[in-house]
Specification:
Blueprint: H1 3-6, H2 9-22, E1 32-33, E2 38-40, E3 43-45, E4 50-51, H3 55-58, H4 75-78, H5 103-120, E5 121-124, E6 138-139, E7 145-146, E8 153-156
Antiparallel strand pairs: 1-4, 2-3, 5-8, 6-7
Bound molecules: protoporphyrin IX containing FE.
């Protein structure tokens, strides 16, 4: 990945999608009650059962993703892959009637936030830390957290100091 890659909007969106594939905010989705008795993969799911879907594992399934553990945004440029519930291989926003209604806004907000962070700062790792030392594993839970918090050094890259002042916001 280079700086120019991030100036390319389709690439930036592919970065967001690949990040949500590997690190969905809710790895087990929200629990839902089965509205009818069904058989899935040979298992009987009775009506009313609490169902959680391991979207984290689905998005890393080697049967449907090539090199699933590899972080490679290009996979979303090579093929059009829907991440808003239309493609069951990647479901960071759920699917069906209770899927996230803010999915497109969420994708745009994350892309905009990454764009701002890259535009305003030069990023590096703390001295002595190599890229391969960054631990991207998550601690298991309902919501995704990194096992080891990321440490990164942000250096302002724009010459207008006032751009970095805190702006009070009235709500
Ligand atoms: C990257 C950002 C976001 C992620 C990863 C995300 C993810 C999710 C997930 C996984 C669900 C549960 C879907 C299910 O139960 O099947 C959900 C539900 C929901 N999300 Fe989001 N969301 C994001 C942003 C937003 C935004 C920006 C809004 C509103 C402006 C929003 C509003 C909602 C609402 C209202 C529900 C409940 C829908 C229902 O229960 O019928 N989300 N979201």
């Amino acid at each position: 990945m280079s700086e120019t890659d991030f100036q390319n909007l389709p690439y930036l969106l592919a970065v967001v999608k690949e990040s949500l594939r590997l690190h969905p905010a809710t790895p087990l989705m929200l629990p839902h009650k089965a509205s009818a008795s069904v058989k899935v993969g040979g298992y009987n799911i009775p009506k009313g059962a609490d169902v959680t879907v391991n979207v984290w594992a689905i998005a890393r399934n080697p049967d449907v993703w090539s090199n699933p553990q590899e972080y490679r945004p290009e996979r979303f440029l090579e093929k059009s892959i829907d991440i808003k519930g239309g493609d069951f291989r990647v479901l960071p926003f759920g699917a069906g009637r209770r899927a996230c209604p803010g999915a497109q806004l969420g994708i745009n907000l994350v892309a905009s936030m990454i764009g701002h962070l890259l535009h305003h700062f030069e990023w590096s790792l703390p001295e002595g830390t190599m890229p391969e030392d960054v631990d991207m594993t998550e601690s298991p839970g309902i919501v995704t957290f990194m096992s080891m918090p990321l440490q990164a050094v942000a250096k302002p890259r724009l010459d207008k100091e006032e751009l970095y002042n805190r702006v009070p916001v009235e709500m």
